[in-house]
Structure of Copper resistance protein CopC:
Amino acid sequence: MSSGLRRRLGLVGAGVAVLAASVLGAAGPASAHNYPVSSTPAENSTVTEQPGTVSLTTNDNLLSFGNGSAIEVSGPASDPRFYGDGCSRIVDATIETDAQLGQPGTYTVTWQVVSTDGHPVSGEYEFEWAPADGTELAEGSATAPMCATAEAEAPAAESGDGSDDSTTDAAATSASSLGDLLWIAGALAVVVLAVVVTLLVLRRRNPDAPSDAEAYEATAPKEDPGAR
C-alpha cells in the first residue's frame, strides 16, 4: 500500500471516529432522565401567602401515563397533614396541583413524573410556610387525598385470571427501548454515510492515481537484456 493511500485512509478513519463520537455523544443526553430545574414554591424558600398552585418544572417535556405522575403537599413537619385534592396536571415540562396550606411550619412536596425516555423519576423538596396575619388556613386531611378523576379512571389492580395490570409499565418500557434503538440506528447510519462520502471525495480528487501494482511496476528496476 502506498504511503499516500495510507495517509488518506488514516484521515478517513480519524474523521469517522470524531464524527461517531459526536453523534453518540449527542444521543446520550436525549435519552437521559428528566431532572428538576425550578419549583413553586421554590425549594428552601419562605412563603408568606397562599401559593394556590404548587408545581415542579423539569428540563424537558413530561409523559403522561395514567397514574404514573403525581405531586403531593404535606406539612407542617411537627404534625403533618395533606393538602389539595390529590389531582395533578402535566403541562409540557411541568407537573402542578392546586393546594391551600394549613398551620405554619416546614412543608414537603413529594413528586413523581415520567421522563421523556419513558422512565419514572421521583423526589421531594421542602419550603417554609410563614403565613401573614389574617391568612385563611386550610384544614388538610390526615391521609393523602385520592383524585376523584384518577380513582374513576384507575384500572383494576388484578384481573379475574390473577394477572397484574402493567399497561403503564409496559408503555414506559416500550417508549424507552424504541428511543434508544432509534438513536443507535441513526448514529450508525451517519457513520456509514460519512465513510462513503469521504471515500468518494478522495477518489474524485485523484481519479488517475495509479494502483499499488502499477506504482510498483513503474518504480521496479528494469532487467538489462545484455546481462543474460
